Amino acid sequence: MAGMEGGDDERMSIYKATRNIKKRHNSLYNALRSIYEDSIFVGEISQLWTQLPLLANLRCGLWYSSNFYQTCYFKSTDGHNNNWSFNTSRLNLHVALLAGQKGGCIIVDSTRKGKRLPDSMSKTIPIWTCVLNRAIQRYRNPGHKDENVKHVDENISNVDHEASEEASVNWDCSLHLPLFISKTERASIERRLEEFTVRLEESGADISSLAMSLRKPLRPLWITQKSVIWLNEVPDHDSWDFTPIILVSASSQDGFIQHRESTEFSWNYIPGAGDDEESWARGLTPILFWNHVYDLIGCEPSLCNRKVAEIVEADRVYRAQRGLDAPQISVNSQKSSGSNEQEKLTLHSNLGMMKIGECFSSKGNSAICWLGSTNVAVSTTQAAARTPAVDCILNCDKELLNVDPSYRYLHLSTVGSKFDRFSLVNNLPSAVKFSRSNLIQGKSLLVCCHDGEDISVCFCLAILISLFDEEGAFDDGNFFRETSITKWEMRKRLVFLCKFCTNARPSRGNLKQVFSFLNGGTSSDYEAVFPVGDSLRAASE
Predict the structure, then answer these.
(1) In the list 28, 44, 86, 216, which could disulfide-bond 196, CB 3.0-4.6 Å?
(2) pTM exceeds cut of 0.70
(3) Is 73 exposed, middle or buried (0-12, 13-18, 19+ CB in 10 A)?
């Protein structure tokens, strides 16, 4: 028995040692230094095609440059083997429109060690480009349905002569994948392309705008740190007979630990270090990182955690002084001895030494997005705090917002489905009632939350479906009363919303709560929004 206990202790010691080694390898300094080194590669690639806008694929890609033009959201899960999908809630049509305007674009992402490309780049985006090309071709020539033929309608209406000449090239609708994708997987994806194209066409997406913007078909190109590019033979993007979507995988794909040294410190390289930021960033955001990059990279690795804590706290104080969302960041740190005890990091109180005025909010895009002509807008709470030109503000954030008394204001503290599965659905009746009472008077409404991407988008989606018709005109709920809201109808409205709010990223759990409200709400929920005499649906129930 004693021998067995000794064996258990020995195995546990090996386990602890392995954990400690992994923890030291995945330290905060190693992650930030790895991101910085990979960003140099991203900068070099972006300089090869300076006229093409640089886009970050959220969220990991956002760490790898301080000069992103815009963001996009292509999920790797949509490209996983046997799980290929074309998700109409993540159409990213703004990327295609931007590529049409600029002649192409560059998208940055990264992946963990051992992979050449993230699945978002190897399959999700190639499927997306192929489906968009097919939909545009069919829009221009409705009678053409053969997915294996390259064709273009030379008699495009409402286009100038120059655009017609450019469109006269063969419109490539084939699926372009990296060479390492097997023939079996390629064939399986190709069998689903027709289904994906029909799904796009039926979603209500504005294909006509894509057809007008894109004069050449979209096509992905892949660049990794192992790509060989002759600098004296870099082709101009206008010379290609397609609109390039250049996919840059920022990280090295080597599957082993790379021990590197700088002039002062040694460190371990982490491929795809920007991934899963909640597990390592300790409250640091990409914007804060790039605002203080040389301070962080230049400090001693053992002091990096404390330096990050000071920066995060300085940003919190900066935002709190201006009435912006400023949650307290609390992090735990393992003692260097490997003990299981937790040690609270003590933040330096001498914040006056830092350039607090440069610690901007963690969200770079704080613009207000107006949803067409609906008189409804969505934004972050940061934008809502800047006295926007609206009549009413619906605050869905957890924190209160200091607003001018001239606004009609309602605060509904709401958290995501990960924290409370009923928080959003419980607040939707009050939100729609508040919106109806103001929109019916012709007033403008701003719906805001912390990031302007998830909870506020879900509130706007419920408002649009409850109070507006299919064309986006306010009808006081007539369409909603007479229509059974299906998941497909809700998806079409989400496509309409995302056309104007390109940063929208509603979570699956929150969308489920919206659908539950629209279909499973009780009569009392309905009467809370509409007058009793108006309750046609409530009466039918």
Answers:
(1) 86
(2) yes
(3) buried
